[in-house]
Amino acid sequence: MAHLDLSADVVSLTQQLVDIESVSHHEQEIADAVEAALTSLPHLTVTRRGHTIVARTELGLGERVVVAGHLDTVPLNDNLPSRLEDGVLHGLGSCDMKGGDAVMLKLAADITSPNRDLTFIFYEAEEVDSVHNGLRKLTESDPDLLQADFAILMEPSNASIEAGCQGTMRVDVRTTGERSHSARSWKGVNAIHLAGPVLGRLNDYVARQPEIDGLAFHEGLNATGIRGGVAGNVIPDECVVEVNFRFAPDRSEADAEAFVRDFFDGYDVTVTDMAAGAMPGLDRPAAKAFVEAVGGEVAPKFGWTDVAQFTRLGVPAVNFGPGDPMFAHKQDEHVPTEHIERCERILKEWLA
Amino acid sequence: MAHLDLSADVVSLTQQLVDIESVSHHEQEIADAVEAALTSLPHLTVTRRGHTIVARTELGLGERVVVAGHLDTVPLNDNLPSRLEDGVLHGLGSCDMKGGDAVMLKLAADITSPNRDLTFIFYEAEEVDSVHNGLRKLTESDPDLLQADFAILMEPSNASIEAGCQGTMRVDVRTTGERSHSARSWKGVNAIHLAGPVLGRLNDYVARQPEIDGLAFHEGLNATGIRGGVAGNVIPDECVVEVNFRFAPDRSEADAEAFVRDFFDGYDVTVTDMAAGAMPGLDRPAAKAFVEAVGGEVAPKFGWTDVAQFTRLGVPAVNFGPGDPMFAHKQDEHVPTEHIERCERILKEWLA
User: What is the spatial distance between Cα B127 and Cα B277, in angstroms, rounded to a whole number?
Assistant: First the structure.
């Protein structure tokens, strides 16, 4: 079993985490390592659900802060093992979001007498359909474990605060034709050819970029998958374009669905996944206090993050983590080590 | 093991063959049954290569005729088991081409004293990439087994003669983009969207329909598969459109490739499969004699068939088998029983 050395500095610890491969649905090894490391700390109470680990102080303090991060990554893209070079750590998951996970582990190990009770949540399956999301499952199985006055999600946000988050919705757009032998193709109807205009509409899409609470959001509508074909000599009778709509938090789930159905008017559209966005919520007292402690600009969060889960539970939440989100899910994913160190320093000052 | 009753009538025997599922690469059971049935006939010498069975008379007669058919089918489409209704047998493989296989088995069993030496070839993997084709493999491993003065391929041709065959070529047309997180899609390049114009060109394609030796051929260019996608939240960096070009026999393989490369000019095109067509060849004496014996019109063969393999070996060959090729590879595939009976009768008269 992989072993995590919590006495190492936060950058070395990030590197240890990156080098434990943990593509979504394959988090067993990293979750075992995190659980073992946290269980060794006597001031924390550890609970495990699947590959989601929760560690809490139970000091009866007046306030409780949740710090959360997911353990999984998108698929490998020839970008492991990690490589540390000129103050930058490269590798799958370095940015999204094992730098944040390492900060959480350091806070858990080093802050034995916090000024607020702390809940650390390391969870599985954030990078796949929300039905698998470990934090979402926890809101159903153990909502008490998520109760807090404020939550910090350590998703990459350039070590500064990103507020709100865009929603995400997935649909299958399906075309239906009729099979025939490809040697007599004029006797069938080619469903892949019918999908040409679907891709045409996506190519013509112009993104809406609304300003909300002073933050400029940016929507996106993209094919993330396409499949069709029966055999090399058969005119295919079905083609499915998998589409992901990222929508600004001023749209409800119903609004988002109506937009997509209208956009693909005339086609068979099936919703396969939906997660609402979260409004920035910077007017809430707990959020205001943290923004003042960190200082600096607040930016909008483009990616969907689990701040939306907390919003749903009535817990104010922001994104604050190391790494430039522009490099998440890219082959050259990386994180500046100074981001990781800055997040560790700010949170230790605020919580210790 | 499935058992074939060669004393049954040719329609019952077709039904027995249809009910032995034999999708390409899964021909073990049907080949075992055919081999066992042929081995029980003392006037034939049986040879097996993989799931390809050859049975020959060796009477030292002045002329030899090959009769050949493949044992495999395209994938299941909710169209098994077989169903005999109002003189029509329905089911996967009934048309393409177990009616022909059944005729071959009846000829093999019943013509113990032929007027020409006979070679029956039942072969595997015709419905997939030509590299797997059992007859093609036989031309390499045992070319002597294919030597003959004339060959009849029992591919569906409405129980009349279809001459020549179109060639078939497969290419992958690949688009390349750049991955990014789908929440910040404007930072990547979507390879599936880039494939939109590829499908657009296919939608604009106009088929050439040349007349050759008095027969009207009909080309076709179709996507038979499409794939792309990394994960539901990643802008995909690759999309592959699998395209099948069916070309008239007046084009060489080189001409066909040049046409397709020009058609997809500007895209990355990889040839994955190629099989040349065959000119009708109705001017050859052996072909003429068979045409006269059968009588009726001669039509062009749109589908690629293994007449091209024989053409390559210098053996004149035609397609002559039960079933309307328009129903090959369709869910409601079927064969009129009178076609099967007509083929059996004509070949028995010509060969016995």
Answer: 16
